[in-house]
Amino acid sequence: MDELERYEGTATIEKVAALSRRRGFVYPSSDIYGGLGSAYDYGHYGVLLKQNVKAAWQRALVQERDDVVMLDSAIILHPSVWVTSGHVGGFSDPLVDCRTCKLRFRADQLDASACGRKPSRRPGETPECDLTEARAFNLMFETQIGPVRDEGARAYLRPETAQGIFVNFKNITSSMRVKPPFGIAQIGKSFRNEITPGNFLFRMREFEQMEMEFFVPPAEAERWYAYWIDERRRWYLELGLRASHLRVRAHDADELSHYSSATSDLEYLFPIGWSELEGIANRGDFDLKAHSAGSNTTLEWVGHEERFVPHVIEPAAGADRAALAFLVDAYDEEVVAERPRTVLRLHPRLAPVKAAVLPLVGNDSALVEKARALFEELRRALPCEYDDSSAIGKRYRRQDEIGTPWAITIDADTLLDDTVTLRDRDSLGQVRIPIGGARELLLERLEAPWLPR
Ligand code: GAP
Q1: Which SS3 state, helix, strand or coil, does residue 284 take?
Q2: For residue 120, what are the contacts with CB-CB under 8 A and spacing of at least 6?
Q3: What does the pLDDT look like over 167-190, one tens digit per residue?
Q4: Spatial contact of 392 and 380, defined as CB atoms under 8 Å apart
């Protein structure tokens, strides 16, 4: 494939998944029971990485702006929400079964699927393939509320966080100091019974979204749509994604969701090819009007001299998919001093651990004492690790693999002149700095712009 030929990283999904498991970022879920297809559990470093992704999103979309407020709505909403939103009727993918190999495929992705037999072919390609007609398969997970399992108890796990925002429009406009243009942002779990999940964190059945609904006067919708495409692109670049691996792709008319008059995807060049990282949609007044009619509650903006139904621009991102893109983009292999090195060149703000404090020799009590004292000082300001467990080279390699941007080494000279060695993960450069200035220097570097490679 053309795009794959142009993929320039050393990463593959398999290598990133293997490193994630080996180094405590992400484990296959329910592992000891054989795993649950395409479900993953985040380990210590994965939790920290994903938290940093979400914090960076919240910082850019809420903290550093005057016009966006937050929400954390329930995962199980009133079932009518999903009828009104169109999800009960239309949130489905076309599904075909193969009666021979008993596998299921998305009818619109047969070309990219492999059938169950070896050597694997495209479903429908061999005379033995026996595919059913395509049927609509609703992606929502159903559940019941309360002890009685009847039709009236049916509810859904939300397939997007967006609807929780629309149904709170009235609460928020009447309790918060907001006025269009303004946004409501939400981070939380969503659930989709995907027919073909896969590619590690890329497509899962349980995942986290970071969505913002930006309510604007109708005449300003196009301008804000363009604005949010630019803003969201800039966010990924500032956090270190390579510009050559990020592009904007406008949807063709036949790809648009039922609610959207225009959508653009920010696509990232994953090792599997260009794929959606985030969607930015112009949802018009579809949702507020639909929920007004569905709930008999007027959902509109009422100002001193005006009254209108705002149009909505929606940047909708996935926290797991963004974490995967940052991991893939950061993954690098090289040979240093004739030894292979694997390194995650994560943006320092995304790195799970910012600095490692390492006594050069782990069994020298004077060095250990000095290193522990520095570690205790640093850990109050930023996430750090202390390690005196093995040879220094091995400890550096471990920090490289979890993406720690700086290592501080305490050696015999430290005891004489109170200086330490600061090692840079990317350049491998080492400089001598006063121990007393380490904290300030690290905090400064953390805020400074950072360029990949
Ligand atoms: N409210 C609009 C909406 O949900 P979407 O394009 O279906 O739009 C937004 O989802 C983002 O959520 C995607 O760009 C992707 O990053 C993430 N996402 C969607 N389905 C996912 C899945 N099955 N696994 C992981 N992330 C997913």
Answers
A1: strand
A2: 114
A3: 999 999 999 999 999 999 999 999
A4: no
Q: Which residues of 352-366 are buried (b: 16+ CB within 10 A; e: fewer)?
A: bbbbbbbbbebebee
Using alpha carbons, select from 19, 47, 17 the residue that is nearest to residue 400.
19
Lowest mean pLDDT among 147-151, 186-190, 229-233, 321-325: 147-151
Please tell me if the CB atom of residue 279 comes closer than 6 angstroms to any atom of ligand 1. yes
Q: Which residues share a beta bridge with 105?
A: 96
pLDDT band for 451, please (50, 70, 90 cuts).
confident
Tokens 């959207």 label which residue? Answer: 260
Pick the residue whose CA is nearest to atom 22 on ligand 1. 203
- 259 ligand 1 Cβ < 6 A: no
Q: Contact, 162 vs 312, CB < 8 A?
A: no
How far, rounded to the nearest angstrom, does the alpha carbon of residue 436 sit from its chain's CA centroid? 37
CA atoms within a 13 Å half-sphere pointing along the CA-CB vector of 214: 25
Helix or strand holding residue 340 (H, E): strand 339-344
Q: How far is CA 385 from the centre of its chain?
A: 25
Largest CA distance in the chain: 79
CA-CA distance, 84 to 161, in Å (whole number)? 15
Is beta strand 331-336 parallel, antiparallel or unpaired with respect to 339-344?
A: antiparallel
